[in-house]
């Protein structure tokens, strides 16, 4: 049965689009038919990260308004035949995205895909609530800093109030994806530590993605980080997170943990 996931955060620039592309590609690599849907009307970022910006003809709003059929707007990935993109419009007015229209598109996507991953715009306004509206599962992307954690807390409130699932009285499944985590900065106290974030946002942890130049490099190449160098730290972390989404139990790797442990052992010996 199809699963709709919203990748959301409240704050912009935390890694939602990066995470949508990386998780989508990792799920598609499992052989499951996956579509990533760009709800960030006006920005059109996801097509760049997916390396498909030159192939966009029709977009989500065209389909919502009935100007194009869904199969005309879907772009099949050149690397993975199980991966598709439904792009956003760069030029149109985001008010053209109606709640009823989005519902029709989501229902149609559910008929053919195993995974539907919705990349949410920043903010807590209409665009973000439309992106989360039909989700079964939410991935709350958070950076280890106070402002991001606070915004995520607000989004968790919205997920429990403004979604179709919440209105039916059902529980919205929520997962925390901690991104851009830099263990050295956390150790120095310049960033929150994993346990600090978990204490404030008491939703289960889906994964910890390290801060890494590999993310920028992949993005510049138009390659989801999980389709690039599979052994890079962010690719491994995203692949593990995707496996957890698919229901597997995978041990959590905390970036820098090994060194932290060494530090503690050394510290004890020295004492
Ligand atoms: N783990 C990471 N390490 C380094 N840079 C990252 C990481 N995740 C995201 N970024 C960078 O942060 C910026 C914002 O990411 P993006 O996915 O567009 O965020 P959002 O969709 O939430 O606005 C981009 O330049 C992206 O390359
Ligand atoms: Mg984005």
Automatic annotation (TrEMBL):
Keywords: ATP-binding, Cell cycle, Cell division, Nucleotide-binding, Septation. Pfam families: CbiA. Interacts with MinC and FtsZ. SUPFAM superfamilies: P-loop containing nucleoside triphosphate hydrolases (SSF52540). ATP binds at residues 11-18. Belongs to the ParA family. MinD subfamily. ATPase required for the correct placement of the division site. Cell division inhibitors MinC and MinD act in concert to form an inhibitor capable of blocking formation of the polar Z ring septums. Rapidly oscillates between the poles of the cell to destabilize FtsZ filaments that have formed before they mature into polar Z rings. PANTHER family: SEPTUM SITE-DETERMINING PROTEIN MIND HOMOLOG, CHLOROPLASTIC (PTHR43384:SF6), SEPTUM SITE-DETERMINING PROTEIN MIND HOMOLOG, CHLOROPLASTIC-RELATED (PTHR43384). The keyword Plastid does not apply. GO terms for biological process: division septum assembly; negative regulation of cell division. The keyword Nucleotide-binding applies. CDD domains: MinD. NCBIfam families: minD_bact (TIGR01968). This is Septum site-determining protein MinD. Coiled coil: none annotated. One of its GO terms (cellular component) is cytosol. It comes from Aurantimonas manganoxydans (strain ATCC BAA-1229 / DSM 21871 / SI85-9A1). One of its GO terms (molecular function) is ATP hydrolysis activity. InterPro entries: CobQ/CobB/MinD/ParA_Nub-bd_dom, MinD, MinD_FleN, P-loop_NTPase, ParA/MinD_ATPase. Residues 5-225 form the CobQ/CobB/MinD/ParA nucleotide binding domain.
């Amino acid at each position: 049965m199809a699963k709709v996931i919203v990748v959301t955060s409240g704050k912009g620039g935390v890694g939602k689009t990066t995470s949508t592309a990386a998780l989508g590609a990792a799920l598609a690599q499992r052989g499951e038919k996956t579509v990533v849907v760009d709800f960030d009307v006006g920005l059109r970022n996801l097509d760049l990260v997916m390396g498909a910006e030159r192939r966009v003809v029709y977009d989500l709003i065209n389909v919502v308004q009935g100007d194009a059929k869904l199969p005309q707007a879907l772009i099949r990935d050149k690397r993975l035949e199980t991966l598709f993109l439904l792009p956003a419009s760069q030029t149109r007015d985001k008010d053209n995205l109606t709640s009823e229209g989005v519902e029709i598109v989501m229902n149609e996507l559910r008929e053919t895909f195993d995974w539907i991953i919705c990349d949410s715009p920043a903010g807590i306004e209409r665009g973000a609530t439309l992106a989360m509206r039909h989700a079964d599962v939410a991935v709350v992307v958070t950076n280890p800093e106070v402002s991001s954690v606070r915004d995520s807390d607000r989004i968790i409130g919205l997920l429990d109030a403004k979604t179709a699932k919440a209105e039916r009285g059902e529980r919205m499944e929520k997962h925390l994806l901690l991104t851009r985590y830099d263990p050295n900065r956390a150790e120095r106290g310049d960033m929150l530590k994993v346990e600090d974030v978990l204490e404030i946002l008491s939703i289960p942890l889906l994964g910890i993605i390290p801060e890494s130049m590999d993310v920028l490099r992949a993005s510049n190449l138009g390659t989801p980080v999980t389709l690039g160098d599979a052994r890079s730290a962010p690719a491994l972390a995203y692949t593990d997170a995707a496996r957890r989404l698919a229901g597997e139990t995978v041990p959590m790797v905390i970036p820098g943990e090994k060194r932290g442990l060494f530090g503690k052992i050394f510290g004890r010996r020295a004492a």
